């Protein structure tokens, strides 16, 4: 956004000329962090500011200007997408039905401004070109992660933009000598490219129809995703999962963003889910009786494991191998689940290692969906367990995950949506919610 420390704050006369929607968006984004300022925390204790009212001012002002292509309108709209609410309890519900159409409006505004076109060769001021590139990637990140998490087709097409990847020169407006703090945003932008490919290759409508019962093709499609995630992971300073390792050894260096680490882990979970999809034999669809139609039978659509085996090692050094001559499908399914469960331990350890200082980093509106993805992944491991042994391990993983969520929800609204969905499943009953095989029912 071009905003950083107090040294970069504009003068009072510039603030006077700043549009209402952008000022309201800045205030709305800053208010949740006011308690970290010694002066503001005392003022807000005596004079409470209703956060929802601030965002209502922002939204009303944006609606008056949104048909006019201005960068400041897009800046306010991006901040509005990631807004916090007055009541943390609002984090326990999804607002996808209202937010997703607004994302389309934001993408359309970015297109109207020409942000999808590389601007480095345009005759524009250097600072504006840097801002335009940063704004495009902010819109791109939102579109790719939110569409993946909510099961919507993305608005941005891969063949309709040509903006290059961000580099340190795109953040010189923050500090002329140090742009290291921008590296996390650049990492997230690169990760969003992997999210785009993952959704297109594994979760688009046509890819789901093609891969739902085809394990060999699923492995072939997942291999480049795993490779890309492995390369991304090797290029960023993500610490180990223990709490001690998450504390920076250099007091002048901030620890790596837990928000981006969780986004990365959610993409790995999505890839594993796509691999587990064909491992379950789907029942034939219920017959629709039409008295005027001729009787017809439905073919058996179950997946047959033929000429397939592989060797898994722990991710990120994941190795998928397809060999000829494999015939034991039950052993193949067992290996797949064992590898997925081994990686799931990493997800539990990471979430368990989160501290109170990490929770303020999750300001992206789609971060709460990343936790729901993880929760669904643990439930999937249990429901699709190929035998009782795997079912017991999956049940223990799910119980550990549920306890971690219960502990964290006490201090952070980020976990409210996940806790709510888990609670609803347990209240109804896992056996009543899912159609379980007998060995999983016995484990429960």
From TrEMBL:
Residues 99-172 form the Xylanolytic transcriptional activator regulatory domain. GO terms for biological process: DNA-templated transcription; nitrogen catabolite activation of transcription from RNA polymerase II promoter. Keywords: Nucleus. Coiled coil: none annotated. InterPro entries: Carb_Metab_Trans_Reg, XnlR_reg_dom. It comes from the Eukaryota. The keyword Nucleus applies. GO terms for molecular function: DNA binding; zinc ion binding. One of its GO terms (cellular component) is nucleus. PANTHER family: GLUCOSE TRANSPORT TRANSCRIPTION REGULATOR RGT1-RELATED-RELATED, TRANSCRIPTIONAL ACTIVATOR PROTEIN DAL81. This is Xylanolytic transcriptional activator regulatory domain-containing protein. The lineage of its organism: Eukaryota, Fungi, Dikarya, Ascomycota, Pezizomycotina.
